[in-house]
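$ ./design --mode recover --in tokens.txt
reading tokens...
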């Protein structure tokens, strides 16, 4: 892949970094599409398009990439190829409303605590201690309320 791009004017942001003896070249690309396998199709400044694998750090959420975003890309010789290291630019503002949708169930989990929402309308909150707080009135509305 790097051989195919050797005629481009790619700006090195710093001296090449060595990864198992292979030099990495840095460049910037605009996201054109997200492939069905999760790789990004990026267009470099000279008009060449390439596919890059996203580097997932596991630190926090990985929002879905959006067409038109600018990404930092590292180019390495085969078999590694292009790696999309992350978005460039200001951090997006928090969304005023988020919807997460699943067909069977949706679970938020942290350690031993979880919240599960099921397609049949059931909701389950599990935890060592469960605390419900309300500044105003706290209401429980149900057909039946069973305590213990």
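writing sequence...
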């Amino acid at each position: 892949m790097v051989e195919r791009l050797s005629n481009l004017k790619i700006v090195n942001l710093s001296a090449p970094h060595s990864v198992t003896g292979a030099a990495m070249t840095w460049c910037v690309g605009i996201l054109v599409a997200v492939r069905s396998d999760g790789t990004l199709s990026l267009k470099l400044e000279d008009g060449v398009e390439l596919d890059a694998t996203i580097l997932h750090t596991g630190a926090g959420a990985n929002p879905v990439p959006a067409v038109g975003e600018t990404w930092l890309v590292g180019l390495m010789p085969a078999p590694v190829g292009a790696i999309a290291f992350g978005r460039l630019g200001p951090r997006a503002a928090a969304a005023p409303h988020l919807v997460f949708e699943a067909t069977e169930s949706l679970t938020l989990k942290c350690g031993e605590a979880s919240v599960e929402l099921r397609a049949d309308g059931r909701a389950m909150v599990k935890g060592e201690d469960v605390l419900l707080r309300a500044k105003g009135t706290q209401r429980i509305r149900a057909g039946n309320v069973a305590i213990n």
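exit 0
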